Amino acid sequence: MAGKANKRGRPGWQTTQGNRAHNRAGGTAASRNPFAGLAASENDDVDSSEMNAHLTERFVGGNGSRAYSDLARVPIGASRNLGIQEYFMATQTPVPAGGLWLQKPEIPTSSEILSKPNANHINIIDVGEDIRPNKPEGSFESVDDYLGTHYNLLREDAIRPLREAVEQVRGAPFLDESEYLGGASIGVYDPVHITAIVFSNRGLAVRVAFSLSRVKKYVRWEQSKRLITGTLVALSPADDTFQTKCIIATVAARPISALSQNPPEIDLFFARSDDVEIDPMRKWIMVECRASFFESSRHTMTALQHMAREPFPLSEHLVQAKQDVDPPEYVLKNPFTDMSPLVPIEESKEFENVNILQSWPSSRSHGLDMSQSAALKSILTNRLAVIQGPPGTGKTYVSVIALKILLANMRSGDSPIIVTCQTNHALDQILRHIAEFEPHFARMGGRSKDTGIIKARTLFELRQSMSQQKIGGSRKHTAMVEIKKLANKMRMLLSPLEQDKPLLSHKTLVELGLITQGQADSLEMEAQYVMGISPDTPGIQMEQWMGRCLRDCDRPLQPDDFGMEFEEDDFEVEQLKELEAEAFAQDDDFETLKGPYILLSDNKIGKCGGNLRTDADIRDVLKTTPDLNNIPPVDRGDIYNYFLRHTKRIILQEFRGHAKAYEKLVKQRQIGQWEQDDRILREQRVVGLTTTGLSKYRAAIANLKPKIVLVEEAAETLEAPVTSACLPSLEHLILVGDHQQLRPRCQVREFENKPYHLNLSLFERMVNNGIQMECLSRQRRMIPEIRKLLVPIYGDMIRDHASVTDLNNRPLVEGMGGCNSFFFTHEWRESRDGNQSALNEKEADMIVGFFNYLVFNNVNPSKITVLTFYNGQRKLLNKKLMTHPNLRAHGALNIVTVDSYQGEENDIVILSLVRSNKRGNIGFLSVDNRVCVALSRAKRGFYLFGNAEMLACESIIWSEVIEIMYGKKSKGRSGPEGSAHKHRVGYLLPLICSRHKNKTWIEEPNDWEYVNGGCDQACRCTLPCGHMCLLRCHP
């Protein structure tokens, strides 16, 4: 069944318009015989590649896959932009004196995955050169040294998790997932079977069905990090279990509807055409590492290799660590700048022509504070600008002001400014600001959650809104035509294995050289004489010959039915889905892989039990039996299975050759699409995309020849993705971030900090090397008592803006009587969940009670955020809050981890610290950058719950924070006899009744039962019905 919706248990895969159009044009794969007219070889001893060389000529016009081997051979129309094509052609250019890293493919080879790690574990496999650490300070030896260092570190960080997962499965092949060391991060799917081949515009995919028998749980795929699109997976035959054979693939698509089937299905892209498999009966085992994501690193690696073949602007700073920074070249040529966006229209005249290299407007003439003005000057006058923005100081605001001025000075024909961020969320935020004054912008890459102006300006939507006529000679059109032709040939090639089709045709067996023409004639004569069957009826002759020696070939993978429970939801899946959305953007349609497909099955197989045990025995019989009807029926089942095996082998060999050609045509289609997009992008003044998208779409961006790139969240991003922004045309790179907040994250923990420093951002490395940095210093988020908690981190760097001391802007927290921050300390012991993430049940109950108290006091739940360092605690808090009788009606609440909350803020933040143990182990709480983020999210109310005594003993930062909250000059313990305003640390949480001003102290979670948002007095108010309220005091 080719190109039609499967009526037998595959409702999850949609039939596309492409399927129907394909069927109208060329019919189904079985409508023609792909082997007709081929000369057959009767010599079974001839090498298979020689014997079937004629098949290649049949399917690709006599030149085999060579017809598609040269990317440049697709005709080039007059309307083409050659820059993108030349970008990809440059990857073939050798690099003189280049390191071995340039020869490594971004996708690992099978031998790399199967190699055993060395005893010291940190050294990777022997690839001819050592993994060199990043350099926090000082220069690199050369550009090659710099790029190679980051390439090797990034590549090993991306592939090691899968290698280690495979190594565990290889050592103990038959364990359940949970039995492996670190089982929470290993995904094992066994068995796996191929069900279909999909011919999509994104590539040739293999659809597989798999069992969850090793998982031993059903999966809610919407809330699971399993098999995220772009994930690297390894497959091995079930009878080998990674002992000798390993095939690498990436997840091409994971539509929830298909995953929700039983058994579930996904699409895979095999990493190499020579590894493609088509046998629907072969059992495989598939392994992934659920704690890593490959696709986000993949594009950055290819970008680094390309940079070795092109000019590298700013290398004097990035590679040689030069400290003195010159103005951008375009500023040196013309320093007179229109600064009027800084001031109101009535004052704009005197700011329209300012020589920014000689004079700078004073702070009195515009609305910026002194630190913002200095930062803006640095942005506009330094070709490499580094701007630090501590929490609440308005770094995005300064970026937007800078963009206003840069856009005001753009001339007709100038290339667009590139704006890039680590996350889609941050990108949407800054683009919303840009949309207020600049309508001509485009957003490339991952799907935006914004449903308004940002969505309308995505590249996908811009394509739909602009008429794009099909240009007959365009690269995209030419590639699409060739893709359809080749897909049709490949489908015809697979027709003997198509689901619900007749047995193998005797004519096909002749053309494959498996039987002689005389043997085929014997089958025809017998069928025509006995049954009157026409020789042109495919498969009937073989069915007549086989008789009762056939049996149905059932689907090899049956539905799972183990009475399993559901796997616990993973609420951190949003972070990986962000990467997934970026790796396969909306215009790539990553959720469902569209295109014609062919379902595969053996359909019928022969009954075994005859006297023929080996292929050699069967070949001897075939050589000595010109009339196949003379073969005993008991042996015919074994002979038919022999035909089936060798048909698959011959088809697979030819199919892999076509797969290689298909891959090249897909690349041509991609280039053609970007050539068409180039016209859209050149009409924009700003192009926004994430740092991952910048690497992925680097060819399209490079063709725009941008001069200016602005990187937001620069300190939270690995260095390599930011380095890839150094396009040959770049004259001005602006880095905005804060290296004292969250640092970049590695997939291999050993690469963080010493000695490898992979989690060091380019931003921080430039600061370490003495590059001039401007720091914003006036914060507009936190009330002063919360801001003071950051003194151990920033010292006296941050000052308060007047707005945060105004009670109209920052009113007191309801029900707390002016106690706007407090550290509730306890000694309740932590525990671990099934994923070994820390949680604290009693602390969670205490927080739920406090959350409910605030809601009782008319605090809008959307104005409260519960933060925690641990995903296990997040899940626990979410469960308890969402099932609380007074809170569940409010819908989704803000319960997030610290790592996902940088750049965010809320009125009231409740921080769950979790850790409390006898060992003094504080885990993530010892990371100062994470602590900085946790302490700086609240605007007017901040409440911490944790073991203050343990934290003070184990961390200098926490010791100073607790000392500040307790009050250095105050005496006595916080309690009924003390002042909660002086001592904001204690074992008793102080509440103030808004009606009676009575003070209540909460010590245990059960104490919340006696408080309804007020105090312990009886309410006695008159209800609307006229009766007296019998509850305790409530607001």
TrEMBL record:
<feature type="domain" description="DNA2/NAM7 helicase helicase">
    <location>
        <begin position="368"/>
        <end position="744"/>
    </location>
</feature>
<dbReference type="InterPro" id="IPR057373">
    <property type="entry name" value="ZNFX1"/>
</dbReference>
<dbReference type="Pfam" id="PF25396">
    <property type="entry name" value="ZNFX1"/>
</dbReference>
<dbReference type="GO" id="GO:0031048">
    <property type="term" value="P:regulatory ncRNA-mediated heterochromatin formation"/>
</dbReference>
<dbReference type="GO" id="GO:0031380">
    <property type="term" value="C:nuclear RNA-directed RNA polymerase complex"/>
</dbReference>
<dbReference type="GO" id="GO:0004386">
    <property type="term" value="F:helicase activity"/>
</dbReference>
<feature type="compositionally biased region" description="Basic residues">
    <location>
        <begin position="1"/>
        <end position="10"/>
    </location>
</feature>
<feature type="domain" description="ZNFX1">
    <location>
        <begin position="185"/>
        <end position="290"/>
    </location>
</feature>
<dbReference type="InterPro" id="IPR027417">
    <property type="entry name" value="P-loop_NTPase"/>
</dbReference>
<keyword id="KW-0347">Helicase</keyword>
<dbReference type="Pfam" id="PF13087">
    <property type="entry name" value="AAA_12"/>
</dbReference>
<dbReference type="InterPro" id="IPR041679">
    <property type="entry name" value="DNA2/NAM7-like_C"/>
</dbReference>
<feature type="domain" description="DNA2/NAM7 helicase-like C-terminal">
    <location>
        <begin position="759"/>
        <end position="948"/>
    </location>
</feature>
<dbReference type="Pfam" id="PF13086">
    <property type="entry name" value="AAA_11"/>
</dbReference>
<keyword id="KW-0378">Hydrolase</keyword>
<dbReference type="InterPro" id="IPR041677">
    <property type="entry name" value="DNA2/NAM7_AAA_11"/>
</dbReference>
<feature type="region of interest" description="Disordered">
    <location>
        <begin position="1"/>
        <end position="34"/>
    </location>
</feature>
<dbReference type="InterPro" id="IPR045055">
    <property type="entry name" value="DNA2/NAM7-like"/>
</dbReference>
<keyword id="KW-0067">ATP-binding</keyword>
<dbReference type="InterPro" id="IPR047187">
    <property type="entry name" value="SF1_C_Upf1"/>
</dbReference>
<keyword id="KW-0547">Nucleotide-binding</keyword>
<protein>
    <recommendedName>
        <fullName>P-loop containing nucleoside triphosphate hydrolase protein</fullName>
    </recommendedName>
</protein>
